[in-house]
Amino acid sequence: MRWMRFAILAVVVMGIGLSTLAADIVVGAKNFTEQYVVGNLIYIFLEENGYDAELREGMATTVIREAMVSGEVDVAMSYTGNGWLLFPEGGNSYAGETQQEMYQKARDHDVANGLAWLEPIWCNNTYAIAVTSEFSEANDVTTVSAFADYVDENGGDVPFCSTFEFYARPDGLLGVQLHYDFAFQPSAIKTVLAGLTFEPLINGEVEGTIVFGTDPIVAKENWVALQDDKNFWPPYDLSPVVRQAILDEYPGVQDLLESLVAAFPSDPAEARAEMTALNARVDVDLLEPEEAAREWLEAKGLI
User: Fold this and answer.
1) Which fold has domain 2-124+238-299?
2) Which of 221, 162, 236 is nearest to 195 (CA)?
3) Where are the domains of the chain?
4) In terms of C-beta density within 10 A (0-12 exposed, 13-18 middle, 19 or more buried), how is residue 55 classed?
5) Which stretches of the chain drop beneath a pLDDT of 50?
6) How far apart are CA 198 and CA 290, in angstroms?
7) What are the pLDDT digits (tens) for 102-134?
């Protein structure tokens, strides 16, 4: 088994080489448009200000969380609703917290984990169920309650598209069915990767799909984002989360990230509109996330 010994040695040597070349600050990003964009915003901004940074993209929510707690990822843009409802052991229930209250709970909880939540972009990229305008008008469905009644009236056999993550999350498909007291037939659910929930609705394969509040395709396709009339989903504002050890070692990083956030409007509606427009540069205008991020940073005079 000499080849195996040589293979193991090669892996060890490669690992040593990679560790010596590791960047000072590792930026993490999840696996959908907005996260690719904001990950690049942070990465480019740090690099342009003299920091040695690395961008790791395409991670699921739980993966990037574990990477931050373990120290493999140093900074990422995270959503306040996740920070309080999903990340604490056992989770928490949404109790009607305001955007500011949700941020404060996420921030305070993570102090013990060595993670600092900086002031967020108040864009509230919450979940929403989207249907076509034709479906909405034909069935008088503009709220999640009305959609739940429609699903029940059809015996749960209403084709619906969900991401794999949304299907499994407590604030996802199961949670919204429990909260609104309705049930899909399991065979009616089409599960796809993040970023692929649009095509089934465009192609008429499903009657509803899960979207984010800042997805520009909702306006582009003239879809109806159903009102969460029983307040199931909490605020999901976008906060730079940084390992405290990084802030201690590189004090200038906090100032940079705060100036990045400050370049977005402070008004929540305006912040959501700006983030939606930024996402549209990728989803509608077909720029690469890096191009869209650099363009925005230059337009704001940050680089």
Assistant:
1) D-Maltodextrin-Binding Protein; domain 2 (3.40.190)
2) 162
3) 2-124+238-299, 127-225
4) buried
5) 1-20
6) 22
7) 999 999 999 999 999 999 999 999 999 999 999
